[in-house]
Amino acid sequence: MNGCTSQELVLLSEVNDELIDATQNELLIHALKTAQARFPETTRKYQLDADLDFTISRHINDKNKTKQLLVWKPSKL
What we know:
globular
């Protein structure tokens, strides 16, 4: 996801629910949050961060992991 464009990030957000529900993968969520940090204007415009947080809270089965993922922020880009 490091090479994705802002438009590709928006397209990926359309399937976040399915991807996260199916994989339960922390690295995927970290990659999505990192990509969102690279495109702050797009993230704000389409509310990608709020949507991702909602998806995490709904689809991650381990509630301790959910809490950790909701507060996780990427290091400086």
